[in-house]
């Protein structure tokens, strides 16, 4: 029945069905196109999603690498810091050891020099005077070496703290010239200074050491001509030149000049040219670096050498000069109290003072001084006292006792082989003069004359 119905359909019905089929095909095509477009869009988003995931993975990987590198750097920095602290600790330990050892080394050296000076005052034969001079030079070399090694150790350990203030260069240069003129004249050299009245900001003690080393080297390695110390103002800076007419330094050796134990070429006939320790310019460089004073060297073989120091200018101060001790006079009749626990040093010092016609009372400690007071000891004109006494006692305790119990405000010279700032501060607060061992007899005599005057 159905088939008959279909076969009996009118043309209009067939055409209507065809139109419906075509419409459905168009709808289907449209739907398929829409689906394909949707699939394309979904495919692009997926690709972007995959790309984002890949980039995230790379970023994570790079981040992990950077984090690992940062941890490695932190560990390296910690290791470097630990190594630095270990080196600084080792330097401080070395400095303390050298300071302690130097005290024991300088004590017998001090006694030997005092005894040698007393021996020379006895006017023995010319031959004995020659031997005494040779011994004196040997002792001086040992003393210089010990002190220089201590200085280098302190500078390397950062234990030297410069005290900066305004310093009048004219006075300092004049003092350097007066000190080295005899050595220059002995070699028939001219020592000339050109110094305007200028002030610089520096540590006077360290600057004096620097100039002493530079001038000493210049005189030592100059055979003919002379040495010039020139000071010039350069705007806010000041320039100090130490110029010599010596043999000069080959260009290949100039980089070595400021290293330890450099002593220059040995082609000189001057017997004093090889007497240096080779540590002077090493000390100069370290001190200049500590002061932040740039230093430069210019030299030509056969023409000479110029070493330049650059300093900041300072303000004029009425007390910026340096005190120069007067020439020593006789000590006849002066009462001197000596407190020294080292028997050999005490004996040598007493002998030397008696050779200078002084009246000497010597004791080992405070107990000895107290006994002498009980026996009627008169007030001394000056006291020479060792800082370190037996059983941890300090020489300044004797000074304090005499001031408290007797009211004796007597001039005091404190001697010690300890170069620490703490002792220097204590001595300064007491109003005493500090003399480091080994004691130089000429220096001691000049200081005594100054204090007694």
UniProtKB/TrEMBL annotation:
GO terms for molecular function: histidine phosphotransfer kinase activity; phosphorelay sensor kinase activity. One of its GO terms (cellular component) is plasma membrane. It is an enzyme of class 2 (transferase). Pfam families: HATPase_c (PF02518), HisKA (PF00512), Response_reg (PF00072). Residues 14-93 form a coiled coil. Keywords: Coiled coil, Kinase, Phosphoprotein, Transferase. Residues 335-452 form the Response regulatory domain. The modification 4-aspartylphosphate is found at residue 386. PROSITE patterns: HIS_KIN, RESPONSE_REGULATORY. SUPFAM superfamilies: ATPase domain of HSP90 chaperone/DNA topoisomerase II/histidine kinase, CheY-like, Homodimeric domain of signal transducing histidine kinase. Gene3D superfamilies: 1.10.287.130, 3.40.50.2300, Histidine kinase-like ATPase, C-terminal domain. This is histidine kinase. It comes from Methylobacterium gnaphalii.
């Amino acid at each position: 029945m159905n088939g008959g119905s279909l076969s009996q359909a009118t043309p209009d019905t067939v055409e209507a069905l065809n139109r419906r089929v075509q419409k459905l095909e168009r709808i289907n095509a449209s739907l398929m196109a829409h689906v394909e477009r949707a699939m394309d869009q979904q495919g692009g988003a997926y690709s972007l999603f995959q790309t984002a995931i890949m980039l995230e993975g790379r970023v994570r990987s790079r981040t992990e690498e950077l984090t690992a590198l940062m941890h490695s750097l932190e560990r390296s920095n910690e290791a470097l810091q630990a190594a630095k602290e270990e080196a600084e600790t080792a330097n401080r330990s070395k400095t303390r050891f050298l300071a302690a050892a130097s005290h024991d080394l300088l004590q017998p050296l001090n006694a030997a020099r005092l005894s040698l000076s007393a021996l020379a005052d006895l006017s023995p034969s010319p031959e004995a005077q020659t031997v005494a001079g040779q011994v004196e030079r040997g002792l001086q070399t040992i003393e210089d070496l010990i002190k220089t090694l201590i200085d280098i150790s302190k500078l390397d350990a950062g234990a030297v703290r410069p005290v900066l203030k305004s310093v009048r260069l004219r006075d300092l240069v004049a003092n350097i010239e007066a000190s080295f003129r005899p050595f220059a004249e002995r070699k028939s050299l001219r020592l000339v200074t050109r110094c305007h009245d200028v002030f610089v900001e520096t540590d006077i003690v360290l600057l004096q050491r620097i100039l002493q080393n530079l001038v000493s080297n210049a005189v030592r390695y100059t055979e003919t001509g002379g040495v010039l110390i020139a000071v010039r103002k350069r705007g806010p800076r000041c320039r100090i030149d130490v110029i010599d007419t010596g043999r000069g330094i080959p260009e290949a050796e100039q980089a070595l000049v400021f290293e330890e134990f450099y002593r220059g070429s040995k082609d000189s006939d001057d017997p004093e040219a090889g007497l240096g320790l080779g540590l002077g310019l090493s000390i100069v460089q370290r001190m200049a670096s500590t002061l932040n004073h740039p230093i430069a060297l210019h030299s030509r073989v056969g023409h000479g050498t110029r070493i330049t120091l650059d300093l900041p200018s300072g303000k004029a101060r009425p007390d910026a000069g340096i005190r120069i001790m007067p020439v020593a006079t006789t000590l006849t009749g002066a009462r001197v109290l000596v407190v020294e626990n080292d028997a050999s040093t005490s004996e040598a010092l007493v002998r030397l003072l008696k050779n200078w016609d002084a009246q000497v009372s010597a004791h080992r400690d405070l107990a000895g001084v107290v006994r002498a007071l009980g026996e009627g000891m008169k007030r001394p004109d000056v006291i020479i006292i060792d800082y370190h006494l037996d059983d941890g006692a300090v020489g300044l305790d004797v000074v304090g006792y005499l001031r408290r119990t007797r009211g004796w405000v007597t001039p005091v010279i404190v001697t010690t082989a300890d170069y620490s700032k703490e002792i220097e501060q204590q001595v300064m607060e007491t109003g005493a003069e500090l003399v480091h061992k080994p004691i130089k007899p000429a220096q001691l005599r000049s200081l005594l004359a100054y204090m007694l005057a």
